[in-house]
Design goal:
The complex is a heterodimer of chains A (about 375) and B (about 280). Chain A is α/β, with parallel strands linked by helices. Chain A has two domains: about 180 residues, Response regulator (Rossmann fold, 3-Layer(aba) Sandwich), CATH 3.40.50; about 160 residues, Rossmann fold, CATH 3.40.50. Chain A is about 40% helix and about 15% strand. In chain B, strands 1-2 form a two-stranded antiparallel ribbon. The termini of chain B are far apart. In chain B, about 75% of the residues lie in helices and about 0% in strands. The chains are: A alpha/beta (about 375), B mainly alpha (about 280).
Chain lengths: ~375, ~280
């Protein structure tokens, strides 16, 4: 369900697996339903209806997908009814998976394959901020600007608590409606607050307008944070180049330089088939199909409940590093990608190009806009 | 209180709201057509401008003219094709125009996808009125909007066509008896309605991006302005546009931008309950 990138990543994996004989002697088949989660006006029940169709009409034995945490939370609540494993490859709210701990028997079907959860995303961001402060000690004032959605409400308090401990001052925090198109008020607040960093958290396409307005108004605060739309190679074109200097968190496999052979093959094949580079949801969906296939082979069946212990035992390498699940069925985060899902920060520098600025092992210096 | 920001942003936004809502006021006040597809003209105007300027390389001024011309024609087509056959039933007009808006959204999504698109600015750079940094494009949008608003107002006040429009607005039956062709006036009104909303979309599109679902917010804003200002009252529309824009900006700066979108909805509710004829309306509806 959801996201053209997820569908394409999953399809690539299905094609590869079927080229090697499929699973249990049969080819895998991919069916898809569009939940339209990227559209902020679309309500949650569209996602639930899509899930219902996938299970009852298409008879899916494993569900892969998810983007908006509010939709995936609602879908997770339906899993006891369907008893089908759901491998989330887009939503990151840490509360996803809490039901697994609270009531394992009913909710064991949920797994967060990608990205790492919001707590881990915050950890990665905070580590980067600390590094940035160390190398640029004059950058201290941060204005936090986030979409008014569940996952950022979980992450903002973590940033508000942790960043001051690394020498930063939070000069403002503001939420804006998901899907906003005019950021005059928000950017004016960023400017008047004296912020040097605009700590942005965006999961939707609204960041296209935000970044364009930021550049047009020459707001003297570097945009740093999580911006899903900005991970796409098309973001530069969408913003008419205004994306230059935006610094975003990505999976370590998404910096443009693959970290392992699996990642290299994935990127090469994805580019060959689809004529574009993948974003994190494609990596996640690709890995999720392999996880499901491996579980089916080991279990000797496609029955959803029987697959659970084998999915739990997953210990494989994906384009973003090692995939191991914790007790809440969230992928484990680790700064070392050989031990867990790892993160990086990249800065947009040119058309189709972003440059890693963290971790230190691959980092280039951060650039500031000419008006800063 | 960030007074300069509120004054500047509220004023610039109000000017575009006035243009966006003018057509809605005319179509309901004159032709008695509650057109829920009004925001679609705004959306389509933005896309037409984008297509001609960005994809076809047409000059920006000509692209604006084409956006206005096309949405004028669409307004007429909407009336002739969908509204006129059901005109005697206000409920059916509501339903058919709402359906048209949803269909327009789906068609645009099929062609362009659901992501917003944005054309380059006509006027680049920034200025600082009252010390508030704003894009020159935003100032241009406000100036053009006010100019168009004034132009349409003068058309209504000073020309024979305008006199005919006002006559139909006052009493359609009497106007018909005086030889004024009600259908022709409705066509002109819907055409103007489309053109003014389309121009608003073309002007704001480069600033805010334009997406297939942009029609919904545009329709809600226009509805709120017209209800508050008074159905069929052009001065009322002008006044109400700025009241709504300033209310939104005050809420955005002083409370939270998350509540900004509630303002026009609250305006509709309060106006209908407290003063249904609006601030300067002539008709009790």
């Amino acid at each position: 369900m959801t996201g053209i990138d997820e569908k394409e990543g999953a399809q690539l994996a299905v094609t590869e697996i079927n080229a090697h004989g499929g699973v249990l002697g049969r080819p895998l088949q991919l069916v898809s339903e569009d939940t339209q989660e990227a559209n902020p006006t679309i309500p949650v029940d569209i996602g639930l209806a899509a899930m219902n169709r996938i299970v009852t009409v298409d008879h899916a034995q494993v569900i892969i997908g998810g983007e908006r945490s509010d939709v995936v939370l609602a879908e997770e609540a339906q899993l006891p009814r369907y008893k089908v494993p759901f491998l989330d490859t887009g939503a990151a709210d840490v509360s996803l998976g809490q039901k697994v701990i609270q009531n394992y028997t009913l909710y064991k079907y949920f797994f967060m394959v990608s990205p790492v959860n919001s707590t881990a995303l915050a950890t990665g961001l905070i580590t980067f901020y600390a590094t940035m402060h160390y190398t640029n000690p004059t950058l201290t004032k941060v204005y936090l600007l986030a979409e008014d959605i569940a996952v950022w409400h979980a992450l903002i308090p973590v940033l508000q608590y942790e960043l001051p401990q690394f020498g930063f001052t939070i000069v403002g925090t503001e939420y804006f409606p998901y899907g906003s198109s005019d950021f005059s008020a928000q950017l004016s607040n960023v400017r008047t607050s004296g912020a040097q960093i605009m700590g942005m958290l965006c999961a939707g396409q609204d960041s296209v307008q935000l970044i364009q307005q930021w550049a047009n108004l020459q707001v003297p605060a570097l945009p740093v944070g999580i911006d899903v739309a900005a991970e796409s190679p098309t973001f530069w074109g969408q913003t008419n180049g205004a994306a230059k200097y935006e610094t975003i968190e990505v999976g370590i496999g998404d910096t443009g330089t693959p970290i392992n052979t699996i990642g290299a093959n994935f990127y090469q094949n994805f580019s060959k088939y689809y004529n574009t580079l993948p974003i994190y949801t494609a990596d996640g969906a690709y890995s999720a199909v392999y996880i499901a296939a491996a579980a089916m082979e080991k279990a000797g069946t496609t029955n959803g409940t029987a697959l659970i212990p084998y999915i739990e035992q997953t210990n494989m390498t994906g384009p973003d590093g090692r995939i191991i699940f914790d007790k809440s069925h969230n992928v484990v985060y680790n700064e070392d990608y050989t031990k867990g899902g790892a993160l990086a920060m990249v800065q947009w520098t040119a058309y189709n190009t972003y440059t890693p600025v963290w971790p230190q092992s691959v980092a280039k210096p951060i650039s500031l806009p000419p008006w800063m | 209180m960030v007074l300069p920001e509120i004054l500047v942003f509220g004023g610039l936004l109000g000017a575009v709201y006035a243009l966006l809502s003018l057509g809605f006021s005319l179509s309901y006040g004159v032709a008695r057509i509650l057109n829920l597809a009004h925001g679609s003209f705004y959306m389509i105007g933005g896309y037409v401008y984008y297509v001609f300027l960005t994809l076809s390389g047409v000059d920006s001024v000509l692209s604006l003219v084409l956006a206005v011309a096309l949405t004028f024609a669409l307004g007429i087509a909407l009336y002739l094709g969908l509204v006129r056959p059901v005109r005697t039933s206000p409920v059916r007009v509501l339903l058919i125009t709402l359906s048209a808006a949803i269909v327009a959204q789906e068609v645009v999504t099929l062609i362009f996808g659901d992501r917003s698109v944005g054309a380059p600015f006509i006027l680049g750079g920034i200025s600082s009125p009252l010390g508030v940094v704003v894009e020159n494009q935003r100032i241009l949008a406000a100036v053009v909007s006010l100019t168009m608003f004034l132009g349409v107002w003068l058309l209504i006040r000073m020309t024979n066509l305008g006199r005919a429009v006002r006559a139909v607005a006052q009493d359609a039956e009497a106007a018909s008896l005086m030889g004024i062709n009600d259908t022709r006036i409705s066509l002109v009104t819907l055409g103007l309605s489309g053109a003014t909303a389309g121009l608003a979309g073309a002007l704001l599109g480069p600033l805010n991006g334009i997406a297939p679902d942009a029609w919904l917010n545009a329709t809600v804003v226009a509805f709120a302005v017209v209800i508050l200002g008074g159905l069929g009252s052009i001065p009322g529309t002008f006044l109400a546009a700025f009241l709504v824009s300033y209310s939104q900006v005050v809420v955005a700066f002083e409370v939270s931008s998350s509540y900004e979108i509630i303002v026009p909805l609250a305006v509709i509710a309060v106006a209908v309950l407290v003063r249904p004829k609006g601030l300067l309306g002539k008709v009790e509806e």
